[in-house]
Amino acid sequence: MIKFFRHIRQRLIRENSFSKYLLYAIGEIFLVVIGILIALQINNWNDNRKTERDEKNFHSNVLVDLQKDEEKLKYYEHFHLKRIEYLDTLLTYVRNPQKTMGIEKFGKYVEPIFYTSNPTSYSTTFDSAKSSGAFNEFNEKELLKELAQYYADFVLIENTFESLTRFVENQYEPFMYQLPENYMTAETGALVINEEDVDGFYQKIASVEDTRNISADYNSLLRAPKMENYIIGDLGRSYNILGKIKSRQQVAKKLMHKIKNND
To answer: Any transmembrane segments, and where (predicted)?
Structure first.
Protein backbone atom coordinates (compact mmCIF):
# COMPACT_ATOMS: atom_id res chain seq x y z
CA MET A 1 0.00 0.00 0.00
CA ILE A 2 2.84 2.40 0.85
CA LYS A 3 4.57 1.61 -2.46
CA PHE A 4 1.31 2.25 -4.28
CA PHE A 5 0.97 5.75 -2.87
CA ARG A 6 4.66 6.43 -3.45
CA HIS A 7 4.31 5.57 -7.14
CA ILE A 8 1.33 7.91 -7.50
CA ARG A 9 3.22 10.72 -5.75
CA GLN A 10 6.30 10.25 -7.96
CA ARG A 11 4.18 10.15 -11.15
CA LEU A 12 2.45 13.40 -10.25
CA ILE A 13 5.78 15.04 -9.56
CA ARG A 14 7.11 13.87 -12.94
CA GLU A 15 4.01 15.20 -14.67
CA ASN A 16 4.58 18.54 -12.92
CA SER A 17 0.85 18.69 -12.09
CA PHE A 18 0.83 20.84 -8.92
CA SER A 19 -2.95 21.00 -8.54
CA LYS A 20 -3.29 17.24 -8.83
CA TYR A 21 -0.37 16.75 -6.44
CA LEU A 22 -1.93 19.12 -3.89
CA LEU A 23 -5.24 17.31 -4.18
CA TYR A 24 -3.44 14.01 -3.74
CA ALA A 25 -1.55 15.30 -0.68
CA ILE A 26 -4.76 16.47 0.94
CA GLY A 27 -6.33 13.11 0.20
CA GLU A 28 -3.37 11.28 1.68
CA ILE A 29 -3.50 13.44 4.81
CA PHE A 30 -7.22 12.77 5.06
CA LEU A 31 -6.65 9.02 4.81
CA VAL A 32 -3.95 9.18 7.50
CA VAL A 33 -6.28 11.14 9.80
CA ILE A 34 -9.10 8.66 9.15
CA GLY A 35 -6.71 5.81 9.92
CA ILE A 36 -5.66 7.44 13.19
CA LEU A 37 -9.28 8.07 14.18
CA ILE A 38 -10.19 4.47 13.40
CA ALA A 39 -7.23 3.25 15.44
CA LEU A 40 -8.23 5.48 18.36
CA GLN A 41 -11.81 4.28 18.12
CA ILE A 42 -10.70 0.65 18.16
CA ASN A 43 -8.43 1.41 21.12
CA ASN A 44 -11.29 3.14 22.97
CA TRP A 45 -13.58 0.25 22.16
CA ASN A 46 -11.05 -2.21 23.56
CA ASP A 47 -10.58 -0.06 26.68
CA ASN A 48 -14.34 0.16 27.18
CA ARG A 49 -14.69 -3.60 26.80
CA LYS A 50 -11.95 -4.14 29.37
CA THR A 51 -13.58 -1.66 31.77
CA GLU A 52 -16.96 -3.33 31.34
CA ARG A 53 -15.39 -6.73 31.96
CA ASP A 54 -13.53 -5.43 35.05
CA GLU A 55 -16.69 -3.79 36.40
CA LYS A 56 -18.69 -6.96 35.86
CA ASN A 57 -16.02 -9.02 37.66
CA PHE A 58 -16.06 -6.45 40.45
CA HIS A 59 -19.83 -6.80 40.79
CA SER A 60 -19.56 -10.61 40.85
CA ASN A 61 -16.87 -10.58 43.55
CA VAL A 62 -18.65 -7.94 45.64
CA LEU A 63 -21.79 -10.05 45.44
CA VAL A 64 -19.86 -13.00 46.89
CA ASP A 65 -18.55 -10.75 49.69
CA LEU A 66 -22.06 -9.49 50.45
CA GLN A 67 -23.35 -13.07 50.58
CA LYS A 68 -20.61 -13.87 53.10
CA ASP A 69 -21.66 -10.81 55.06
CA GLU A 70 -25.25 -12.00 54.97
CA GLU A 71 -24.29 -15.39 56.41
CA LYS A 72 -22.18 -13.75 59.12
CA LEU A 73 -25.01 -11.36 60.01
CA LYS A 74 -27.37 -14.34 60.37
CA TYR A 75 -24.92 -15.85 62.86
CA TYR A 76 -24.69 -12.56 64.81
CA GLU A 77 -28.48 -12.27 64.81
CA HIS A 78 -28.86 -15.83 66.15
CA PHE A 79 -26.12 -15.23 68.74
CA HIS A 80 -27.75 -12.11 70.18
CA LEU A 81 -31.30 -13.47 70.01
CA LYS A 82 -30.16 -16.41 72.15
CA ARG A 83 -28.32 -14.01 74.46
CA ILE A 84 -31.53 -12.04 74.95
CA GLU A 85 -33.37 -15.30 75.63
CA TYR A 86 -30.86 -16.29 78.34
CA LEU A 87 -30.91 -12.84 79.93
CA ASP A 88 -34.71 -12.89 79.93
CA THR A 89 -34.67 -16.26 81.74
CA LEU A 90 -32.24 -14.95 84.35
CA LEU A 91 -34.32 -11.80 84.87
CA THR A 92 -37.41 -13.95 85.44
CA TYR A 93 -35.66 -15.78 88.28
CA VAL A 94 -34.20 -12.56 89.70
CA ARG A 95 -37.65 -10.97 89.92
CA ASN A 96 -39.40 -14.09 91.20
CA PRO A 97 -37.59 -15.19 94.40
CA GLN A 98 -40.08 -18.00 94.94
CA LYS A 99 -38.76 -19.72 91.80
CA THR A 100 -35.84 -22.08 92.37
CA MET A 101 -33.30 -22.30 89.59
CA GLY A 102 -30.81 -24.86 90.81
CA ILE A 103 -27.05 -24.54 90.48
CA GLU A 104 -26.73 -26.52 87.24
CA LYS A 105 -29.40 -24.50 85.43
CA PHE A 106 -27.88 -21.31 86.83
CA GLY A 107 -24.51 -22.33 85.40
CA LYS A 108 -25.97 -23.10 81.97
CA TYR A 109 -27.63 -19.68 81.72
CA VAL A 110 -24.91 -17.47 83.17
CA GLU A 111 -22.04 -19.11 81.26
CA PRO A 112 -23.09 -17.97 77.72
CA ILE A 113 -23.15 -14.36 78.97
CA PHE A 114 -19.35 -14.49 79.34
CA TYR A 115 -19.08 -14.85 75.55
CA THR A 116 -19.29 -12.01 73.06
CA SER A 117 -18.73 -11.78 69.30
CA ASN A 118 -16.12 -9.99 67.23
CA PRO A 119 -17.63 -8.53 64.03
CA THR A 120 -16.17 -9.38 60.64
CA SER A 121 -16.73 -7.50 57.38
CA TYR A 122 -15.90 -9.00 53.99
CA SER A 123 -14.74 -5.88 52.14
CA THR A 124 -11.64 -7.21 50.34
CA THR A 125 -13.03 -6.75 46.81
CA PHE A 126 -14.23 -3.20 47.47
CA ASP A 127 -11.03 -2.12 49.25
CA SER A 128 -8.80 -3.61 46.53
CA ALA A 129 -10.70 -1.91 43.69
CA LYS A 130 -10.75 1.38 45.57
CA SER A 131 -6.99 1.37 46.25
CA SER A 132 -6.21 0.48 42.60
CA GLY A 133 -8.18 3.46 41.28
CA ALA A 134 -10.51 1.20 39.27
CA PHE A 135 -13.56 3.14 40.46
CA ASN A 136 -12.62 6.07 38.21
CA GLU A 137 -13.46 3.98 35.12
CA PHE A 138 -16.62 2.28 36.40
CA ASN A 139 -20.03 3.45 35.20
CA GLU A 140 -22.25 2.54 38.16
CA LYS A 141 -21.24 5.50 40.35
CA GLU A 142 -24.42 5.43 42.45
CA LEU A 143 -23.85 1.78 43.33
CA LEU A 144 -20.26 2.58 44.32
CA LYS A 145 -21.51 5.32 46.65
CA GLU A 146 -23.95 2.93 48.28
CA LEU A 147 -21.25 0.27 48.70
CA ALA A 148 -18.87 2.86 50.15
CA GLN A 149 -21.52 3.88 52.68
CA TYR A 150 -22.28 0.24 53.52
CA TYR A 151 -18.67 -0.55 54.32
CA ALA A 152 -18.13 2.76 56.13
CA ASP A 153 -21.15 1.99 58.34
CA PHE A 154 -19.45 -1.20 59.57
CA VAL A 155 -17.96 0.95 62.32
CA LEU A 156 -21.47 1.15 63.85
CA ILE A 157 -21.49 -2.64 64.21
CA GLU A 158 -17.96 -2.62 65.62
CA ASN A 159 -18.78 0.04 68.20
CA THR A 160 -21.89 -1.73 69.50
CA PHE A 161 -20.10 -5.09 69.69
CA GLU A 162 -17.16 -3.49 71.52
CA SER A 163 -19.53 -1.75 73.92
CA LEU A 164 -21.02 -5.09 74.94
CA THR A 165 -17.58 -6.72 75.26
CA ARG A 166 -16.34 -3.90 77.54
CA PHE A 167 -19.53 -4.16 79.59
CA VAL A 168 -19.02 -7.89 80.09
CA GLU A 169 -15.35 -7.48 80.98
CA ASN A 170 -15.80 -4.49 83.31
CA GLN A 171 -19.12 -5.35 84.97
CA TYR A 172 -20.18 -8.97 84.54
CA GLU A 173 -16.90 -10.80 84.98
CA PRO A 174 -15.80 -9.02 88.19
CA PHE A 175 -19.28 -9.55 89.66
CA MET A 176 -19.42 -13.23 88.73
CA TYR A 177 -15.90 -13.90 90.04
CA GLN A 178 -17.31 -13.57 93.56
CA LEU A 179 -18.76 -17.02 93.03
CA PRO A 180 -16.47 -20.08 93.00
CA GLU A 181 -16.60 -21.64 89.56
CA ASN A 182 -16.94 -25.16 90.84
CA TYR A 183 -20.53 -25.06 89.65
CA MET A 184 -19.28 -25.83 86.15
CA THR A 185 -19.78 -29.33 84.74
CA ALA A 186 -19.26 -30.90 81.31
CA GLU A 187 -22.80 -29.71 80.46
CA THR A 188 -22.36 -26.11 81.59
CA GLY A 189 -21.42 -24.93 78.10
CA ALA A 190 -24.44 -26.60 76.45
CA LEU A 191 -26.11 -23.24 75.70
CA VAL A 192 -22.92 -21.45 74.71
CA ILE A 193 -22.89 -20.18 71.14
CA ASN A 194 -19.39 -19.68 69.82
CA GLU A 195 -17.62 -20.03 66.49
CA GLU A 196 -14.87 -22.04 68.13
CA ASP A 197 -15.40 -25.43 69.77
CA VAL A 198 -15.68 -24.99 73.57
CA ASP A 199 -16.73 -28.51 74.55
CA GLY A 200 -13.17 -29.52 75.34
CA PHE A 201 -12.82 -26.64 77.79
CA TYR A 202 -15.85 -27.64 79.88
CA GLN A 203 -14.95 -31.31 79.79
CA LYS A 204 -11.46 -30.44 81.04
CA ILE A 205 -12.82 -28.34 83.93
CA ALA A 206 -15.25 -31.10 84.88
CA SER A 207 -12.51 -33.74 84.76
CA VAL A 208 -10.59 -32.09 87.60
CA GLU A 209 -12.22 -33.29 90.85
CA ASP A 210 -12.87 -30.59 93.47
CA THR A 211 -12.40 -31.96 97.01
CA ARG A 212 -12.60 -28.57 98.78
CA ASN A 213 -16.31 -28.91 99.57
CA ILE A 214 -16.90 -25.22 98.84
CA SER A 215 -20.54 -24.27 98.39
CA ALA A 216 -21.37 -22.04 95.46
CA ASP A 217 -24.04 -19.74 96.89
CA TYR A 218 -25.56 -18.74 93.60
CA ASN A 219 -28.84 -17.57 95.15
CA SER A 220 -27.26 -14.61 96.93
CA LEU A 221 -25.61 -13.60 93.67
CA LEU A 222 -28.81 -14.05 91.70
CA ARG A 223 -30.82 -11.92 94.13
CA ALA A 224 -28.27 -9.13 94.37
CA PRO A 225 -29.52 -5.79 92.92
CA LYS A 226 -26.35 -5.61 90.86
CA MET A 227 -27.37 -8.75 88.97
CA GLU A 228 -30.66 -7.16 87.90
CA ASN A 229 -28.84 -3.97 86.91
CA TYR A 230 -26.37 -5.96 84.86
CA ILE A 231 -29.04 -8.06 83.10
CA ILE A 232 -31.01 -4.95 82.09
CA GLY A 233 -27.84 -3.22 80.88
CA ASP A 234 -26.86 -6.27 78.84
CA LEU A 235 -30.36 -6.57 77.41
CA GLY A 236 -30.26 -2.94 76.30
CA ARG A 237 -26.92 -3.41 74.54
CA SER A 238 -28.03 -6.70 72.98
CA TYR A 239 -31.21 -5.14 71.57
CA ASN A 240 -29.14 -2.23 70.25
CA ILE A 241 -26.79 -4.65 68.50
CA LEU A 242 -29.75 -6.58 67.10
CA GLY A 243 -31.16 -3.36 65.63
CA LYS A 244 -27.84 -2.55 63.95
CA ILE A 245 -27.61 -6.10 62.57
CA LYS A 246 -31.12 -5.99 61.09
CA SER A 247 -30.48 -2.59 59.54
CA ARG A 248 -27.27 -3.87 57.93
CA GLN A 249 -29.06 -6.99 56.69
CA GLN A 250 -31.63 -4.81 54.90
CA VAL A 251 -28.93 -2.72 53.22
CA ALA A 252 -26.99 -5.84 52.19
CA LYS A 253 -30.12 -7.37 50.61
CA LYS A 254 -30.83 -4.13 48.74
CA LEU A 255 -27.27 -3.99 47.39
CA MET A 256 -27.33 -7.64 46.30
CA HIS A 257 -30.64 -7.09 44.52
CA LYS A 258 -29.25 -4.02 42.76
CA ILE A 259 -26.08 -5.82 41.61
CA LYS A 260 -28.05 -8.80 40.28
CA ASN A 261 -30.35 -6.49 38.34
CA ASN A 262 -27.43 -4.55 36.85
CA ASP A 263 -25.82 -7.73 35.58
So the answer is: 21-42
